[in-house]
Amino acid sequence: MWLGAGVDYQWAWDLQRRIAAECADGAVADTLLLLEHAPVYTAGPRAPMEHVVGELRAPLVQTDRGGQVTYHGPGQLVGYPIIDLAAKGLGPKAYVHGIEMALVEALTDFGVAAHTEDGLTGVWTERGKIAAIGVKISRGVSLHGFALNVSTDLAAYAPIVPCGIFDRPVTSMAEVLGAATAMDAVRAAVAVAIGRQLSVTWRDASPPETP
User: Fold this and answer.
1) What domains sit in the chain, N to C, each tagged with a CATH number?
2) DSSP, residue by residue, 125-189
3) Which of 5, 37, 59, 183 is the most exposed place for a label (fewest CB within 10 A)?
4) What percent of the chain has pLDDT over 90?
């Protein structure tokens, strides 16, 4: 389900929680929300605030996902897979690994050589981290998800230590490829790859109106 660009973080978070509760009750099928957020920084419950090292150019929201401080904004494909993991017998590690491998697969389709790294969550290239992952599981259902830098303004990461990693840069598809890639093509490839990796058939639904 494509929610569009410039989506408010709190609005999307509230939507996730509503769908996740319905999914846990068996009222709706697995759902993938795809969007671009309006500029925002987010921090997980254990994120040290000393990882904010400069003046932020957008609001900071304390959230309940795993992970530390990161940035979301235009040119970044954010995905929130809301999946009944309990019904699929998927644990947290297998779920996160499935997302990682799906993003690697989708990036390969566009000529970006990507990989995972032992001990570090997310997806990487030789130029740095290209996708961050932070999730929560409630009543056996997944919330939050991933953020893939397609053509993100990487300067937005300067005031933070992204994901708590001091010695690794962040990158984007545009930086790696030296050219922009259409967001609609990326989101289509990512949706297919995640469905394939996690054996999910996404429900087709009309998106709610964004504020």
Assistant:
1) 9-48+74-198 (3.30.930.10)
2) ETTEEEEEEEEEEETTEEEEEEEEESS--GGGGTTB-GGG-SS--B--HHHHHTS---HHHHHHH
3) 59
4) 85
Q: Indicate the pLDDT class of residue 207, thresholds 50, 70 and 90.
A: low
pLDDT of 10 reads 97
Structure tokens belonging to residue 142: 């997944």
**DSSP secondary-structure letter at 38?**
P
Q: 63: which residues sit within 8 A by CB, 6+ positions away?
A: 13, 42, 43, 44, 144
- Residue 5 reports pLDDT greater than 80: yes
Report whether pLDDT(168) > 70.
yes
Average pLDDT, the chain: 94
Interhelix angle for 92-109 vs 183-198, to 10°?
140
**What gap in Å lies between CA 211 and CA 207, rounded to an integer?**
12
Q: Using an 8 Å Cβ cutoff, are 85 and 160 in contact?
A: no
